[in-house]
Specification:
The complex is a heterodimer. By secondary structure, chain A is mainly alpha-helical. Chain A has two helices and no strands. In chain A, helix 1 packs antiparallel against helix 2. Chain A is elongated and about 70 Å long. Chain B is built from 13 helices and six strands. In chain B, the strands form three sheets. Chain B has a two-stranded antiparallel sheet. A two-stranded antiparallel ribbon of chain B has the order 3-4. A two-stranded antiparallel sheet of chain B has the order 5-6. Classes of the chains: A mainly alpha, B mainly alpha. At the A-B interface, helix 1 and helix 2 of A face helix 10, helix 11, helix 12 and helix 13 of B.
């Protein structure tokens, strides 16, 4: 039971990985293949890069946020040697 | 599946397992004689353990992949051991000379390059698509998939390397995750048409080597694998996940290692060789238990997060870490079932 919060963080981590990988391969990577796209090649590359960074940033922010909440809740009662 | 295939799969498991069980004891005596030992950091009394056992583990894995390659007439096991061999060589250099925190991941890109270069000879070495549970396949994206495959080697190898801090941690971790990988690839082979059994045969040496090594590495350890062993395990895992087409299930299985790397890299802000970390995430109390550091600047490793819930002995700490790994592996198997069997 002590590890339930960490298992929860783990579950959020892999659900986000699945969702973001799906978004990456199905929506970000094919962006350039849209016919008659008004955006030029460089613009498309920058747009893709921005979208990739956004996906990575979402994962980082969620993980850091969850970990901070966990550490804050636990660190006050952190175990210390009795002597 | 015929009797010959069953026999070949059995051989791919038995040969590397026997190589570890027979070859490792004399190799450990050799290491001890030469003075190649390391201090077991989490013991109250000074204990020396032979290190690195990686070379013997690599020889055993090589023997297993050789059996799979010849038996199934496939290049897949060759590609897997080629990537693993490059990672092993980099790890051995690190064991002998200590490479920098940034040098190691950069050099490990070579393992990925060696692996993907074989696609020139074998175009179907990996399929550049990702298969999602229920949702099915993505379109084929060769360039981006190949680039990500190259990057996967340093990422996964380093993640395995960072899970190598306590007695039995790396062997239990690799065994559990490779079993999840084996389940995924077996389901893929059983339910997808035209999927070669060689890809299943290529996983068995990793399972066999870690099973054998566990007997020496479990608490109290009689052998440490060194970076040569842990980087090789990671590179093998990456190569097998790519050739087996089970990328999603593989990532899920190693989430504890990914989180551990993420926590460490984000809290020390970059690649820092662990021997040069300024403050430690944990410390050992006079009672022999491990405690989390409460310093403000202490790195947030997965171990520290586990210990924040309560001080633990080294043995119980590894049990807790393996509980988290088991949860991830069960999810991984569930993902494989949803992907291939339903």
């Amino acid at each position: 039971m002590k590890l339930a919060p960490l298992s929860g963080i783990e579950a959020v981590a892999f659900l986000l990985i699945i969702a973001e990988t799906y978004l990456f391969f199905n929506f970000v990577v094919p962006v350039g293949s849209i016919p008659h796209s008004p955006i030029d090649y460089t613009g498309l590359a920058l747009l893709k890069l921005a979208l990739i960074l956004a996906l990575v940033a979402v994962w980082f922010v969620v993980m850091i946020g969850l970990t901070r909440v966990y550490v804050r809740a636990k660190v006050r009662n952190a175990p210390r040697p009795s002597s | 599946m015929g009797l010959v295939e069953v026999g070949l799969l059995l051989l791919s498991f038995v040969v590397p397992l026997s190589a570890v069980l027979i070859g490792l004891p004399p190799f450990l005596r050799f290491l001890t004689r030469k003075g190649w030992t390391s201090s077991d950091a989490h013991k109250s009394t000074q204990t020396k353990v032979p290190e690195p056992a990686g070379p013997m583990l690599f020889v055993a894995a090589l023997a297993g992949e050789f059996v799979a390659a010849v038996g199934f007439s496939s290049v897949v096991p060759v590609a897997v051991i080629l990537g693993a061999g490059v990672a092993f060589a980099i790890g051995l250099a690190d064991d002998l000379y200590v490479l920098g925190g940034k040098t190691k991941p950069l050099l490990l890109l070579l393992a990925g390059v060696a692996f993907v270069s074989l696609v020139v000879i074998v175009p179907d070495l990996y399929q550049p698509v990702i298969t999602f549970p229920i949702l099915g396949d993505t379109a084929s994206h060769f360039t981006i998939y190949t680039a990500l495959a190259v990057v996967a080697f340093p990422v996964v190898s380093n993640a395995f390397n960072m899970m190598d801090a306590f007695n039995g941690e790396i062997s239990w971790f690799t065994l559990l995750t490779s079993l999840a990988l084996l389940a995924g690839i077996s389901l893929h082979a059983a339910f997808a048409s035209g999927f070669s059994l060689a890809r299943v045969g290529a996983v068995l040496p990793l399972v066999a080597v870690t099973t054998g090594f566990l007997l020496f590495n479990r608490y109290p350890s009689k052998a440490f694998d060194g970076d040569s062993g842990s980087l090789m395990f990671g590179a093998m895992f990456a190569g097998l996940a790519l050739t087996g087409g089970v990328e999603i299930a593989a990532i899920i299985a190693i989430v504890p290692a990914i989180l551990n790397s993420f926590y460490t890299l984000s809290s020390v802000r970059g690649f820092v060789e662990r021997r040069r970390m300024q403050s430690r995430p944990t410390y050992m109390g006079s009672d022999g238990l491990l405690y989390p550091s409460t310093e403000a600047g202490a790195p947030n490793t997965l171990v520290r997060l586990v210990l924040l819930a309560g001080a633990l002995s080294e043995k119980d700490l590894v049990k807790s870490l393996m509980y988290l790994t088991l949860v991830a592996c069960l999810f991984s198997v569930a993902i494989s079932v949803l992907t291939w069997a339903i």
